[in-house]
């Protein structure tokens, strides 16, 4: 899994039926020190994460194991809001 | 998922039987500000996306969860046309 | 999927039993303008592609959905010979 | 699989139900000579690895094959503590 | 699949039960001309490959399709010893 922070949302009307009602968030991957990495990922929120919160994102087929994503065409899901990151290099 | 814009199409006659009738589009991944990223991906259109529209693309095994792709040899599918991208860095 | 051109073949006698009889081709990924990308991939040919032809390659678990690859230990398969690539940047 | 060393832990209260009780560790990928690579990965510990130990990490859907991860939304798991790395370049 | 050469072995006592008895080899990915690429991968040997031999490596969920890897937490497997690589750029 990676760590990211929520930057915004995607609005899409014309989409796969199994995406109806799903919240599509834009997540910026971050480093352990909180600085931004390059790029972004669009992930389905499954835990009610809020704007700019630090979240944990799962990718690949395991994104379909997140709550409510079974058999959905999604490859990225937010599965946790992060309280603290404890590390020593 | 990633965001991209549609650049064109691939025509292939000699192909896997389960690709018959599928629209194979060339998608250019883009950044949140609309600028192009490097590279491209060939994705199956499953939502009737139009030329140069911004779309959402799912990759990996989840591309087979998109409408009509069950058990197909595809690793990339267009699953939504994007109306708006709202974000604050 | 990606686009590539066929560079050659791999010969392997001591291999997984489910690879017996499969044609293992070396594919060079190419850009939309036909120029080479870095790297290469070894893919199972499932459509009878010829030397130096432009082909479409599927990766990951979906390579096992290509004709004849069910339950095989392959992560890359050629699934189409490309006739034309039509695009406008 | 890759080799990494454990840097720390992630604490998350608001998370997917199937992550309850799982130990989420921050792993730094390393080179064969023991030097750090860029980046990090958050992995579920399934073997009781200790702080700063060298571990083996599996990614993708196979992370769900590790002990206790069946059907969990995880894409990275620690599956072994490394005793020795023997190699000659 | 990729091509690599075997550099060495990993010894791990404290590991996932389904890895018991499996040979964990360190593989260096190589270019078509035989030169080394960056990085390495730890792969399960399933064909009895020898030290410094050129091998074919499969990644992702398909590594579990290799002989003896069913339901194992492995994302990389050696599935063939390479006799010859024939190519023309």
Description:
The structure is a homopentamer of 89-residue chains. Chain A is an all-beta fold and 89 residues long. The first copy, chain A, has one domain (2-81): EutN/Ccml (OB fold (Dihydrolipoamide Acetyltransferase, E2P)), CATH 2.40.50. Chain A is built from no helices and six strands. Chain A has a five-stranded mixed barrel. Chain A is globular, with a radius of gyration of 13 Å. The mean pLDDT of chain A is 97. The interface between A and B is medium-sized, with 30 and 31 residues.
Per DSSP, the total helix count of chain A is 0
* DSSP, total strands of chain A: 6
What is the strand content of chain A? Answer: 35-45%
Secondary-structure class of chain A = mainly beta
Return the CATH architecture of chain A.
Answer: Beta Barrel
Multimeric state: homopentamer
Quickly count the domains of chain A: 1
Radius of gyration of chain A: 13 Å
Assigned CATH superfamily of chain A: EutN/Ccml
Greatest chain-chain contact: A-B, 30 and 31 residues
Q: Concise description?
A:
The structure is a homopentamer of 89-residue chains. Chain A is mostly beta strands.
């Amino acid at each position: 899994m990676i760590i990211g922070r929520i930057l915004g949302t995607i609005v899409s009307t014309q989409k796969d039926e199994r995406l109806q009602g799903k919240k599509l968030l834009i997540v910026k991957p971050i480093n352990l020190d909180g600085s931004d990495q390059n790029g972004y990922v669009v992930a389905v929120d499954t835990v009610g994460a809020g704007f700019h919160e630090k979240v944990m994102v799962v990718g690949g087929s395991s994104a379909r194991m997140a709550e409510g994503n079974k058999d959905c065409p999604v490859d990225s899901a937010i599965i946790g809001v992060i309280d603290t990151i404890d590390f020593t290099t």
